Amino acid sequence: MQTTYLQLTLLQAGKQGRDAIKYSLGSRLSVEPVWQLIKSCGWQLERVIGGLESMDFSSNVRDNSLLKAHTDITVRKFFSKERALIAPAMLGSLHPVTDEPAIWDGNTLARLLANQQFRQYRSGPDNSRNADANSLLLDIIQNPQRWLGQRHNGKLHLFNRITETAQLHNHASLLPDFRRPPPRLLPRRSPLAR
């Protein structure tokens, strides 16, 4: 909730965050009309989203049949402008890389960077932003099909192409390290254990 408005962002697998559809619904005076709408949908988010998706946004939104009983609610549909929004379904589990793959595709590169399984990271000649490994990871996750890794003189070079037919650009080089990373969460110890 933002003040008296509820904002919903629909992230879909296979789409980037900037392609996400957003809905804003609420009242200028009170949060109560939104709660009444959610309550009338049986507290089920799927029903609320289904109703929003069935609305015709080419006319006055207040006249829509979904909102018959809720006349002080305004609803707006718009597209997200945030580039860094990533749908959780796009991420999945980024498990560590255990062996050298035959082909270093974008998904394998993302797994390597996410688990910090590398040493001697260096920006490449085509990395005009001088992006660090985490920034590169976000770029790879958003467009894995545009990334490729290639071994040369013992180092792994990370290449990107803007379009399918574009030339490859060298963004970074590193030395892969296939050792399993340390666990991020340690087991909880009992406060009674000494």
Protein architecture, described:
The protein has 194 residues and is an alpha+beta fold. It has 5 helices and 8 strands; from the N terminus they run E-E-H-H-E-H-E-H-E-H-E-E-E. The chain has a 5-stranded antiparallel β-sheet with strand order 4-6-7-8-5, covered by helices on one side. A 3-stranded antiparallel β-sheet has the order 1-2-3, with no helix packed on it. A hairpin with a 2-residue loop joins strand 6 (147-152) and strand 7. Helix 4 runs antiparallel to helix 5.
Give the arrangement of secondary structure elements.
Elements: E1 5-10, E2 21-26, H1 32-40, H2 45-54, E3 74-79, H3 88-91, E4 104-105, H4 106-114, E5 118-123, H5 133-142, E6 147-152, E7 155-160, E8 169-176
Antiparallel strand pairs: 1-2, 2-3, 4-6, 5-8, 6-7, 7-8
Brief write-up:
By secondary structure, this protein is of the alpha+beta class.
Structural class label:
alpha+beta
Helical segment count: 5
The number of domains is 2
Principal-axis shape equals extended
Q: What is the spatial order of strands in the main beta sheet?
A: 4-6-7-8-5
What's the average pLDDT? Answer: 79
Poorly predicted runs are none
Tell me the Rg in angstroms.
Answer: 23 Å
